Amino acid sequence: MLPSWSKELSVHNDAIDEQHKQLFDIAGRAYALVNKKATKEEIVIILKELLNYTQEHFRDEEIYMESIHYPRLEQHRERHREIIRDMTNSVMQIRNVDDLKEKLAVIAKKWLLEHIIREDMQIEKFRRSVCQINPSMPKKETSEVEYEESKFKYTCQCKGKIHLVPLALHNKIQKEKALFNCKICKASIQLLET
């Protein structure tokens, strides 16, 4: 039986909490397939959903950690990379449906949910300690609007398309002159001058 998300697991950031809830939901649906008759296609679909959503969540969580100056950001970022790498490697080694179900259970329970319950709670512990030391740090839940403010607007050659770029990527582009291309038009994205 998988644990379910509860308020005790809140990091007091609405966007991250919603993503954690969604991850618990996807993991729960994935775990349910383990003990019932499921086709390989059904399992692959939920695995892809889990992997894609996990990658999106990890990116957003790293932006959040950066915004609160979380001191273990690099270690946490590396743990995210390990989880994605392990998930991908496990899926690549699958030989049959039973093997697929076993990998799905490990991914859902061990890598994702235990990561949220153990490691992500360290982020909240840090946020609380900073709030006590620095009263200017928001004590209330961070709204999605405040969360979005940590993103920068970039354009490409697609008509009317705006790329919302997180602070870490923005810094790489501006300071390290890194190039990132639009997946659609393949053109290098440029900071939108306001």
UniProtKB/TrEMBL annotation:
PANTHER family: BACTERIOHEMERYTHRIN. One of its GO terms (molecular function) is oxygen carrier activity. It comes from the Bacteria. Keywords: Iron, Metal-binding, Oxygen transport, Transport. SUPFAM superfamilies: Hemerythrin-like. This is Hemerythrin. Residues 14-123 form the Hemerythrin-like domain. Transmembrane segments: none annotated. It comes from Helicobacter canadensis MIT 98-5491. Coiled coil: none annotated. CDD domains: Hemerythrin (cd12107). Belongs to the hemerythrin family.
